[in-house]
């Protein structure tokens, strides 16, 4: 389709008129970053002028940044817990937002071991959809012809519960996929998925994955891009194919759906799609039965131009494995978002993962930035928050947001580095999430949680007069699913009565029982995390570790045992001192209900 010249964009020539409008919107927002931000804050404060939380701080109807910054404190989730609890229990008064809280989004960030509950309002769905609508127009600038085929995306809904007051508590993507915004989205030739809605919306994760994979295989020639939200999800799909290609091929050969697929709406929809195709079945069997799975993605889906998965932040650990299975296809990280708020998008989605930067869209919320001090450096006075348009190139900041749904100066916990600007909008490299030590899927285990888990498990060693003298950890992602490895150095006081294999296996489970609910859900419901492993190392290993660190320049006075390791020589040292390995023998406790 020819695009009117007046609609062309500095980002590049748009693929169609709809794209031109989206690109123009990006230009408009990023050219006017500061005034859009000023406007957004004024809108949020006007809309919520009468809410209980804001009234506490005597804003007196002011909507300007200066008054806002001088009166409203910066907070963390824990500070809002009383308000969240009241809303969850059914208090419908305007506590945080004038618009009624429509549901809670369950974040993968946790507080006291449980998922955080993020309030949201109906309006936010439009804002999320707006950000989604910008992704393909940007992608079309770099990859032409995406309207000539389909996307194989593994998308899932997860368990949802109700709070005591009757509001839904569920992940943001579950909320989005179940919304009419997604279910009744208009046809867009650039955004056609192989997965039918029925498969995506099927709550049984096996049936959902099975059907999505089957549909992807049936349309293998049409698939132009393969994706999932995070890298871990796509690797789980590949693992699923490794485990189930035989049944899948049988279905393709016979045109009959596996009996294990019992969901009525999935069955109804597959009747229309699945037809016998013995040649395709033979092809899938031939490829999947090969010992070597290198490049399997492009062997099965030969027209794939890129993988659409987030591989920034904690997901970077999966890049080598994705490269292996895809034969090095480009990895596109398209957006940066959270349960609290969708932040922005990558304007150069085909850039190398290490160079990915996200442009925060100034219309999404009011954004402030807390200058991030290097570890050990503390500030005496209250640090000053910087506005979106004022961040400085090369500096690191923690993201602080004020949303339409009622979070005011809320610390997200992400550390970002400014790498450049698009017009006047800064672009950020995602550096890391604060305090996260171990992560396999969307679990985010911090140092305190790991410490508590080790303490809990070591109780089992007491009767053997044994204690854990040192420990460290490592997220092993070489296998799918990945798992936590915890290295323990033990002090066994009575070697005649040292803990046996069975006890140490139980210690693995005791650790898992203590880890946060996102970890336990990954183990129990999503099967995205494998059994926790304890590797007992020889006495003196941690002293060697210290010697090694000091030989590389660490100060002997300030040396602290790293509670997580990922530097190869250190892991080699640890692994060469392992005396025994133990795995969790069972699944930890998990239900969708919260413990508190
Ligand atoms: P959740 O609260 O479960 O929605 O998780 C949101 C968090 O996931 C963000 O605050 C980030 O820490 C992380 N995240 C989301 N998108 C990205 C991305 N594109 N790159 C790196 N980390 C991300």
UniProtKB/TrEMBL annotation:
GO terms for molecular function: acid-amino acid ligase activity. This is Indole-3-acetic acid-amido synthetase GH3.1. Coiled coil: none annotated. Belongs to the IAA-amido conjugating enzyme family. It comes from the Eukaryota. One of its GO terms (cellular component) is cytoplasm. Keywords: Ligase. Residues 449-568 form the GH3 C-terminal domain. Residues 358-433 form the GH3 middle domain.
